[in-house]
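Chapter summary example.
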Amino acid sequence: MGEWNENALLDSLWQKLAEDSRIAPPHIGLVMALLYHHNGANLSDDFHASRKKLMRFSGIRSVTTYHKYLGELVKYGYIRYVPCWHPEQGSKFAFAFD
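The structure predicted for these 98 residues follows.
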C-alpha cells in the first residue's frame, strides 16, 4: 500500500473515531499505542504487541480497564484482536478498515 493510501486510511480512522460518541479518551490512548507499536507495517497488516507495552504507552493502569476498552474497540469494529499469552510474542492486532 502506498504512502498516500496509508495517510488516507489514517485520516479515515481519526475521522471515524472523532464522530463516534462512544469513544472516550482511553480508547484514543489505546489506538495511539497500537499505532505506535504496529512498527511501520502497513496499517492493514497484522502486527503483534504486548499488553504491558500497550498499557504503558496508553496510560491505562488497570488490566481490567485495558480489557474493557480493547474489547469495545473490537466490538465497535476499529480493530481485530487475537490474544496470545506468550510473553515475548504479544497478541496479534490489525486495524479494521471495512
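To summarize the output: Residues 50 and 86 are 9 Å apart (CA to CA).
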